[in-house]
Amino acid sequence: MQMRGKILAGVAAIAVLAACTSQDMAEDTVAPPPPPPPPPPPAVAAMEAPVGFAKMAGAPSPIMVQPEPEFRDKYEDVDPNPVKLVSEEPVSTFSIDVDTASYANVRRFLEDGVLPPKDAVRIEELINYFDYTYPQPAEGEAPFSTQVNLMPSPFAEGRELMQIGIQGRDIDRDARPPINLTLLMDVSGSMFSDDKLPLAKQAIKLMLEEMEPTDTIAIVVYAGAAGEILAPTQVSEKRKIVAALEELRAGGSTAGGEGLRLAYSLAEQGLKEDAVNRVMLLTDGDFNVGISDPEQLEDFVSRKRETGIYLSVLGFGRGNYNDAMMQKIAQTGNGTAAYIDTLSEARKVLADDLSGNIFPIADDVKIQVEFNPARVAEYRLIGYETRLLDREDFNNDKVDAGDIGAGTSVTAIYEITPVGSDATQIDPLRYGDNDTSKAEPSGEYAYVKLRYKAPGEDSSTLLERAVTGSDRVDNVEDAPQWARFATAVAGYGEMLKGGEALGTGFGWESIRNLANGAKGPDEFGYRAEFVQLTRLAETAEAQAALRQQGQEE
Fold this sequence. Notes:
The protein has helices spanning 2-7, 11-19, 22-27, 101-111, 123-127, 197-208, 238-246, 256-269, 294-304, 323-332, 343-352, 354-358, 481-496, 508-516, 526-552, and strands at 84-85, 91-95, 144-152, 160-168, 179-186, 216-222, 226-234, 276-283, 310-316, 335-340, 360-371, 376-382, 402-405, 409-418, 446-453, 461-467.
């Protein structure tokens, strides 16, 4: 409350605070009592408001026109996974990924009538946006079930798709552990627009409705400096939490690194052994003050995950959206990443899917697949480029990997080329050993191994199973519904990346036909929306081609 009082003290005091170092802020602990909170803010906040977090009581609210943001979105430059020869590299290892940020971000571009940058498209996040309702794990077994399907690839004749599906165990609401949540909210000037801080506030209000009265929330904010706005408060005091949210204003530079320090410090102080302890960062990712170097942030977050505190990263807005930064810290800090572009998406992430995004049931989940060279000549992992692991990492429990939340499903897809197929993409070596006769000619296509840790544990548990002919269907139409829809989404992602990995006979219409035939129950309309997005993507692609043609003429 002292920090809050200092922030509310006036424009001049806030300006000084923004110029101070985090050490100075920590040393300055004496502040006069705060004035009464101001009335609810107007629809458009004023940039001349304090470089901070709330306007001075009684100060006028000048009306300003929001400028169009300059496009400075940042994405990690990642090359697609290459095709690999089983004879040279038979083992594939990667971390699972439950993030969905890419799907919502791509949707935002398409609804604006333009194709997304290729680096904004992470195919695994498109696939994992959907719930595939795999069978629940049996009582008393692992916290997730595993499904495998093998079917002809609709992408290219002569190849096949091997799909691995993981379904996390659901948790009844009355069996959920308490939530101890620290909100870290970006209130810098870049969060000024309606699709940023105002939307973030609305998202938190939706989440409050899904939380239990005994759950606790604390609020930390950062702009030119970081400060505590709300000490850990039970959700039963909802009006107090909402009042604290309503006081937030955007303005100033972005001391995101200092905000992370303060948020983790507050979370550690209130750490509860019987609760899910989590920091939730709501930002556009534009860190430009304090710790802003990606490697330093990753190092800090990686050390903090040892405390048992999970991390959720929610991205907002456009223009200077730093997707690369947020992906890095989410993947490093036992975290998940989502992108909130609409109130509907906020409801999906923080209300409908709250259990999956808040309550972990398995940590550091890794997948390793060994292909049988007698049956499989080539393979390509579709997506998961930022989640690849070295072969030896699979058995190293000190190597971090992704976490699965309650009720969450995860899907991974390999495109494989059977031995003897005319669809092989890599010529055999003239002088290498291409003889597969020494390989075991069994019915196994591959051997799948998974490792996971129970939340809070240091040692992993191994699960394994063979992929045999019994997992295969002869026709795409005979594949399970989940396999067909996931394939349609994977094809959508490949098309958005340029379609180089697809055969000439597969395109937007093929995706729609495949998706429409596998929609199944669609309570919230997400799958119907997906079909519509393929139409928007096709239109955007055609318009981009026309613009390119016009430039060349």
